[in-house]
Amino acid sequence: MRIVSLVPSWTEYLVDLGLEDQLVGRTKFCVRAGHQPEGITRIGGTKSLHLDRIESLQPDLVIAAKEENVREQVEACTAFSEVLLTDVRDVQGAFEWLETVAEQAGRKTAGQAWRDKIEKAWGHPRPVMERAYYVIWQKPLMVAGHDTYIHSVMKWWGIENAASMDSTERYPTLEPDNEAHMECRRMLLSSEPFPFNASHCAAFAEKGIASRCVDGEAFSWYGSRMLHAVDYLRGVATAE
Question: Is the pTM of this model over 0.85?
Answer without folding.
Answer: yes
